[in-house]
Amino acid sequence: MTRDLLDKIIFNTFNNPFINQKHDGAIVDLEGKIAISTDSFVVSPIFFKGGNIGELAVNGTVNDVAMCGAIPKYLSLGFVIEEGLNIEEFIKIVESIKITADKCGVQIITGDTKVVEKGKGDKIFINTTGFGKVHPKAKISADHIKTGDKIVVNGFIAQHGMAIMSQRQGLEFESDIVSDTTNLNYLISDLLDTFGHKIHFLRDPTRGGLSSVLSEIAEDTDKGITIFENKLPIENQVAAACEILGLDPLYVANEGVFITIVASDIADLVVEFMQNNDKGKNAVCIGEITNENHKKVVLNSLIGGKRIVSPLIGEQLPRIC
Amino acid sequence: MTRDLLDKIIFNTFNNPFINQKHDGAIVDLEGKIAISTDSFVVSPIFFKGGNIGELAVNGTVNDVAMCGAIPKYLSLGFVIEEGLNIEEFIKIVESIKITADKCGVQIITGDTKVVEKGKGDKIFINTTGFGKVHPKAKISADHIKTGDKIVVNGFIAQHGMAIMSQRQGLEFESDIVSDTTNLNYLISDLLDTFGHKIHFLRDPTRGGLSSVLSEIAEDTDKGITIFENKLPIENQVAAACEILGLDPLYVANEGVFITIVASDIADLVVEFMQNNDKGKNAVCIGEITNENHKKVVLNSLIGGKRIVSPLIGEQLPRIC
Questions:
Q1: The whole model's pTM is what?
Q2: Where are the extended beta strands (E) located within chain A?
């Protein structure tokens, strides 16, 4: 694969006025509070059940921008390609990036491609950096989290991590476990349109899973968090796979999941609102912010006990995203 | 190296209100035309004479933003680290990023760190994405290039490429060939302050060298370009190294070099203005835009002949930046 061929594929696919300038950068009009997020994607394998590294790289950064309470609009795209990457695979990834970006309503405006020798990379790594304007009604900050606030999650947890993991381990289940990678930006924007400042916090528990995000929030707010095991949304098959592999689903990576921490008086409305959206149809309130157990996350277990959920040390599953 | 340790080093070094939010993104105030540029750096070796991959990653993207006629203000930072990278080396790189960002007047506002297994990367790859507001007097575009415009270069060419190359080949010269990596944003901004719209075009000839940039301009504008070999600024030692290695300095990568294409009536003033700036002290007019030899770059050689400079096919030196 020559650089020229790579460039041709990229320019033909992302054909738009920004990228067609073929300059070292793009010029866009932006105004006001702009959320910016960057992420490098090194997932292995690069094609997995339910998606591929390209789709992940778009959804992941779009979601990170959305979690800032913003409307993602533009993405930059940086490839590091290992020599010998199959050209058909590269084309599939680039096309998948284009389709996913269109779905998300974002444009790829500038990019860069580097090639490294065989054995100095692993097929392909992708960096995406996303930009978007903060929603006018958004006031998302850990500082706005109050005692009594409810924690709502939009759907089934641990799917992405278990999809990658069972593929790596060659595990087979009755039906496939499929990554939940998807874009959450429209649902977030609808939530902010409707509930505005009463949405206190948003976060997608990707690497490190739900437990890491909740532990960070408890730490940062100096409050306690209680969650209820019987409320945690998890598919039977995913729960079974976690058991087989000895993994706690609270620590497993998600890609299409987010939590929102909301004023207690709107919690039921938020759950109902999310259930009416395809990306939130399994939404449920899983817990609340407490004035006890400061800086700790406490799980009320199925059998009536309580246990402290400790933050994840290191990465449970490397190269999950 | 655990992720926690990496994070601690990063947060302690880039201590600022944006990155301290520890969110998945940063929120900044921006207004108007914003230039955005992204670049992944995979240079090998990661430490070289005159710089390191961290310094390069800041200067490179800062310069790309500046070449859009903009004032770089913020950078995002994405690391892909190979397991086993020496912790002291990582700290040196991170500190170098901080020092260079300070020199450039930009802030690192958000970042991401991924770790891959030994043998699946090569020590460290860095993506930086930069943004900044377009200078109010800037009107930089290939569309503004006119027949008769002059091409000015700020200083010695081929230094970065030859520094990397002679280090890789173990070549020794009387004194070391040192990379020219540096930030050009202040000089560009001063030029725009002073000459405004009469600066028609800016570009830094990094990968592919001067010939690639000039060939692209000839192609895009449908005009011809004539350059004069006796005007090309090149250090004796660099010229000698190129000869030994059989490389044409016109194709060798630069990091602290830029060309500007300006209205012919200000060309001498621009050269003089640049010579009064440390980053342009070896500035010289190397050629002009012509109404003949459409889409071609013609070199008037030292011995009085003419030859066509063809665009570089593929990369002359892989992993130069």
A1: 0.96
A2: 26-41, 47-48, 51-52, 70-82, 107-116, 124-134, 150-153, 199-203, 224-228, 259-262, 284-290, 297-300, 306-309
